[in-house]
Amino acid sequence: MSPSGLNTTIHPQKPELARCKALVPARYKSLLAKRLQARRIPLSGYLPVLVRLASSQAHNLPVRPRFTAFYQEPGQDLQPVNFCVSGQLWGEFKLIARGCGVSMCYLFVHLMLLDEQLALASRGRRRNARWTGEVSKSIRLEMKEIVQNSWIRLSRTLIIETVRSDPLD
Predict the structure, then answer these.
(1) What is the pLDDT along the chain (169 residues), one digit of tens a residue?
(2) Residue 147 sits in which domain range?
(3) Number of domains in the chain
(4) Taking a C-beta distance cutoff of 8 angstroms, is the pair 110, 62 a contact?
(5) Is residue 167 part of a domain?
C-alpha cells in the first residue's frame, strides 16, 4: 500500500502494432498502388512480402560499403506512406536495412522495384514456359545489431539462407 493509502498497480502494455512510415518518391506511388492491387493486400500486408523477398533474393539486396545509412537523394519529392505492422517485423526490416548499409525507406523502394521486376519476369516466363534449370548458389547472410545504453543491452541476429528452386513452382 502506498503512503496515501491507495493501492496502485501498473500493468505495462506492449503495443501490438508499430506505427511505421516509409518515404516513397512520388513517381513510384502509382507503382506501389499497382503492386498492392496485384497482390490484393493492404499496405500493412506488403511489408511481410518485402521481408520474404529480401530473404529469397539476398543476392539482389543493395549493399553500401560504409557503416552509415545511405539515404535517398534530395529532390525526389518523397511522399510519406503510413502503415502499422508488428514490431518484430519492423525490427527485422530495420536489421536488414542496417546490414545493407541503406536506410529503411531506400530498402522499401528497392524491394518494391525488385518485386515489380520479378512479377514482370514471371509473366514473361509463363508465356514462354521455358525454364533452363539454372540454379544460383545458396547464400547465407548473417546480420547482427547491438543496441546498448546504461541499463539495457539488446542484440538481434538475422540469418537469411536462400536456395533457389524452379521459379515456375
Answers:
(1) 555 555 555 555 566 788 888 889 999 999 999 999 999 999 999 999 999 999 888 888 888 776 555 566 777 788 999 999 888 888 889 889 888 888 888 899 999 999 999 988 887 665 554 544 444 555 666 777 777 777 777 777 777 766 555 444 4
(2) 17-160
(3) 1
(4) yes
(5) no
Looking at residue 93, its amino acid is F
Q: For the whole prediction, is pTM greater than 0.70? A: no
> Count of alpha carbons within 13 Å of 100, Cβ hemisphere only?
26
Using alpha carbons, list the distances in angstroms from residue 150 to 4, 12, 14, 95, 153: 32, 21, 22, 22, 8
